[in-house]
Design a protein that fits this description.
alpha/beta; TIM Barrel; eight-stranded parallel sheet; three-stranded antiparallel sheet; 16 strands; 20% strand; globular; glycosyltransferase; ArchSynthase1/Queuine_TRR; TGT
Length: 376
């Protein structure tokens, strides 16, 4: 642990990077996958379990927490860490994406965005300064700038307008954040699927000398090859000595290919959301536990796993729970999926340390391609 925010790049293997972020609340081993705890909970999981899967950091969401229970209430209760019983680092996103995607009514201008709550219809205003204030009240360790995320496909002029707005907001967020020892604010690169705009955004943000940089506005419906092209365009412009965070990504394959291009941090609701709907990610690819083939299969999802949900419960039982709409089914599959994601990240880090990431990536993809176990 350290009193300051510090990123150390320990080793590179072609484009892949092995490192760690040191903060007062603990170390984050990179490449890292950050489970999403939108409203102060990683859905269907105890946070003790989340920690045991290998998570060093989780996310909270500014938009949702400002509406319920409100940032001011969280602050009065001692901050988000104390409220949810998580002593380790928390990253909060700025709320910008949720404002754009969830609120039924919104008006955006230079000052920020005015929007109607999806919860009760109440009216709120989010400025760059207010976003940073909320994240401070929550007690977040890594805070994100307010940005405007445009869904793809979009008109180039609209993408450019949003990118330029996000840059101006980044400067205001930096001023509002000020100096907070032991904490960090990250900027967010925008620019849609237009390489020249991505480069302009990354160059301008790099000039702000922030503690870290995120790649936003991807995983919003564009094909994987477009996402990877934008990474290849953007990452060479960002400082080598700062962490790079790809927001909202993704599938295990997305993660492998993005690590290969130099990404250090990921987050996604996919493992828990998929688990709640009966889909498991395994070392042999995706498994839909709802399928009838599992109804009398007493084998576990993964007998090699250290996770009890993966190793100790039969497919037959998981199938029964999911088909019966029992909450325990979603809980066990979410637990399994988060454990698999963290095992994947552990394997990635080990492979980079040993200088064999390309081999690890090929072996992992080959195993996925084999498909699930033969039916009993």
């Amino acid at each position: 642990m350290t009193d300051n925010f510090q990123f150390t790049l320990d080793k590179t293997d072609a484009g892949a990077r092995l490192g760690q972020i040191s903060m007062p609340r603990g170390e984050i081993r990179t490449p890292a996958f950050m489970p999403v705890g939108t409203v102060g909970t990683v859905k269907a999981m105890y946070l003790d379990q989340v920690r045991e899967t290998g998570a060093d950091i989780i996310l909270g969401n500014t938009y949702h927490l400002m509406l319920r229970p409100t940032a001011e209430r969280v602050a009065r209760l001692g901050g988000l860490h104390k409220l949810i019983r998580w002593e380790h680092p928390i990253l909060t996103d700025s709320g910008g994406f949720q404002v754009m995607s969830l609120s039924g009514l919104r008006k955006l201008d230079e000052q920020g965005v005015t929007f109607k709550s999806h919860v009760d219809g109440s009216l709120h205003h989010m400025s760059p300064e207010r976003s940073i204030e909320i994240q401070g009240l929550l007690g977040s360790d890594i805070q994100m700038q307010l940005d405007e995320c445009v869904a793809l496909p979009a008109e180039p002029k609209e993408i450019e307008r949003a990118m330029e707005m996000s840059l101006r907001w980044a400067e205001r967020c930096r001023v509002a954040f000020g100096e907070q020892p032991g904490k960090a604010m990250f900027g967010i690169v925008q620019g849609g699927d237009i390489p020249a705009l991505r480069i302009r955004s990354a160059e301008a943000l790099a000039q702000l000398d922030l503690k870290g940089y995120a790649i936003g506005g991807l995983a919003v419906g564009e094909p994987q090859d477009v996402m990877l092209q934008m990474l290849e365009t953007t990452l060479p412009v960002l400082p080598l000595e700062k962490p790079r965070y790809l927001m909202g990504v993704g599938t295990p394959d997305d993660i492998l290919k993005s690590v290969a291009r130099g990404i250090d941090m990921f987050d996604c609701v996919m493992p828990t959301r998929s688990g709640r709907h009966g889909l498991a990610f395994t070392r042999r690819g995706k498994v839909n536990i709802r399928n009838a083939r599992h109804a009398e299969d007493m084998r576990p999802l993964d007998e090699q796993s250290n996770c009890p949900a993966s190793r100790d419960y039969s497919r037959a039982y998981l199938h029964h729970l999911v088909r019966s709409n029992e909450a325990l089914g979603g809980m066990l599959l979410s637990w399994h999926n988060l454990a698999y994601y963290q095992e994947l990240m552990q394997g990635i880090r080990k492979a980079i340390a040993e200088g064999r990431f390309a081999d690890f990536m090929a072996e992992t993809q080959e195993e996925w391609a084999r498909g699930d176990l033969e039916p009993v």
